[in-house]
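How a chain folds remains the central question behind the approach discussed here. The record that follows shows the chain in one-letter code together with its fold in token form:
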Amino acid sequence: MSLRSQLLKGILEGCILSIIKQKPTYGYELSMRLQQFGLPDVSEGSIYPILLRLQKEKLIEGNLQKSEAGPKRKYYHLTEAGHSALEAFIFHWEAIKVPVEAIIEKGRNEQ
């Protein structure tokens, strides 16, 4: 597993929760949205297990809705627990992001 994949694995759940918070979303659409944000290497095969886990943890709920282009799609939305989990993710992300960026920046300036 590449370093990028390892780093992404740890934050993908929070990214997915954040995208779902923006509007109810189905699996393939999640993949497309992640690509639009600059994460083209996240496959649907990575997304669906996360969606299943988030459903088991009751952070998201899915319901089938009619699709204009084919069969029904399962659209996911955040539950109350999902909103709380996203808030916790953002809090912890900010707590890690700031010092890591400071360390990296100091390392760049030292060379």
